[in-house]
Every structure is written in C-alpha cells, then in structure tokens.
Amino acid sequence: MIDNAVRAKAIALYDRYTHETLDRRSFMAELTRLAGSAAAANALLLSIAADPAVAAIVPPDDKRLVLRKGPYEIDGGSMTGYFAKPANVARKLGAIMVIHENRGLNAHTEDVARRLALAGFFVVAPDFLSASGGTPADEDKAREMIGKLDYKQVIAQGVATIQRLKTLENTNGKAGTVGFCWGGAMVNQVALAAGKQLDAGVSYYGPAPAPAEAVRIQSPLLLQYAGNDGRVNATGAPWTEALKKAGKRVESFTYPGVEHAFNNDTSSARYNKAAADLAWDRTLAFFTRYLA
Asked: Which tens digits make up the pLDDT trace of 122-142?
C-alpha cells in the first residue's frame, strides 16, 4: 500500500519527467527507489499516468451529438480536428477550441470536446501534431514530438482555428478556447496573439506568460490552478496579479490540496472529482456568459 506522502513525491517526480528534463531511465530508477521495488514502482506509475482504457464520461457513440474527425483548412494548409456539436439544434452556437495536453489529441481530449458539445457548444479539438504525422499512441513519443514543435506556428494555428470557428454557418460569431497543462499554457499564448478575435479563454494549470505581457490581453480569461502544483503556480500567481493590475477581465481559482491535471479522470492518482466538477461548472458558466 503506497502512502500519500510517497504518492505525492512520485507525482512530483513524474511531473519532472513529463514536463522538464528528467530522462526515463533516471525517472524509473528514482521511482523504484521511492517505491521500494520495481514492481511497486510500476504499480505506482500506472496510478499516476493516464490510462487510455478508462471509460469516457461521454461515450464516443452518444446519439445526442454529431461527431467527426478529419481535416480542416486554415491559411492555405490543413490540420486534423475532432469536431463535436449537439444534434438537432437549430440555433447558432458559440464555438470552443479545446487544446490538448502534451500527450496530443487522445481519447480523453476528445471526451472533453464531447462534454462541451453536450453543454450546447460547437467544438473542435485540433491535433497540433498534425504536421508531424498526427498524435501517436505512445504518449512518450507524443511528448517528444510536442517538444520539437515550432511554438510560433502552433500559436498561429490556434489563432487561425479561432478565426475559422467564428465564420462557420452554424456558429454565432463568438469563439473561445480551453486548454489543459500544455494546452493551458497555449490558451494564454493564443489570447495574446488573437487579441479581440478571442471572446473567452479558460486555462487549466497552464504555465503562464511573463507578467509584463498582461497589458496585451484583450479577452476575458478564467485561470484554474491546482494547490499542489508549485511549478505552474510560480508563474500563475504573478500572471493573475498582473492581469488584475492591468484592469483585465480575469477570474482565477486555486483548488487546495489537489494535483496538477486534477481534471483528467484517466489518472486515478491525480483526478479529484470535487475540484474537477467545480472547475467544470465554472468553465461552463464562463463560456455561457461570453459565447452564448
């Protein structure tokens, strides 16, 4: 039985591996030392890492939705996107771009897109690894590929996707974005680049830009942080303070005692249902206010 103190240290170690420069061999050696044996380390890793076999909250064959995965055109090029919208809705909808974690466009991100569609939005989750051949099944490979991306190009693709969403026949001319971890960081960057073209942004535990950039933000932002996420919070607190000082429309919440990626229900050690539900309710209320 792994106690909470060991689990917390293992999560911090895993974050160093997945978000910083710790290589897999060193990570597994340190995790084995922490857990006491190779078998215990592997069991601990399974509880921390995302499990693609976990059942989706909204099933991928939900008849209440219209779903499609395929290419869409932006600026003379194309990306792969997962599209979701409610079925049998005649009114024009606010649009949302979902930006994935550093694992790429996986089943969990697609599930998040379906949840937003059920709430009454037109949703696309782009695969920002499209130009590299698309998101691979191997999460370590996906993280490696994301580390090699041209971030200026990624931000430009995000802005172009927002622009496209605003012009679709079945959308109402308003578009927002939500992102998680790597995607949460990209929400802030897209907001900086898009200016008034972005109508709302929600960032979940995303590393923040330099506080001096806050004066450039023109869209309302909702920032959500995990209490135990010191790495991200070290940037998030100054960013929030700078946005408020600059008179920007910002709401910021930190959920005490929860881990980075607390919204990801495919990771049993990280997921916190109470915090995830509260953050989700705030997300839907925010998008309804600015996109409906």
From this structure: 999 999 999 999 999 998 899
Tens digit of each residue's pLDDT (9 = 90 or more) over 176-224: 999 999 999 999 999 999 999 999 999 999 999 999 999 999 999 999 9
Distance CA 279, CA 227 (A): 13
In the chain, the number of structural domains is 2
Q: 159 versus 41: which is more confidently predicted?
A: 159
Determine which helix (DSSP H) or strand (DSSP E) holds 255, and give its type and residue range: strand 250-255
Instruction: Return phi, psi of residue 262, to 5°.
Output: -65, -20
Name, in order, each residue with C-beta under 8 angstroms of 153's C-beta and a sequence gap of 6 or more. Answer: none
- Write out the residue range of the structural domain in which residue 251 sits: 65-291
- Work out the angle between the directed axes of helices 182-194 and 151-167 (0-180°, nearest 10): 70
Mean pLDDT of 28-56: 75
**Whether 86 and 25 share a structural domain:** no
Write a three-state SS string for 158-227: HHHHHHHHHHCCCEEEEEEEEEECHHHHHHHHHHHHHHHHCCEEEEECCCCCCHHHHHHCCCCEEEEEEC
Q: Are 202 and 114 members of one domain?
A: yes
Q: Are residues 214 and 125 both part of a single domain?
A: yes
- b/e map 136-157, b = 16+ CB within 10 Å: beebeebbebbeeeeeeebbeb
Residues in the chain: 292
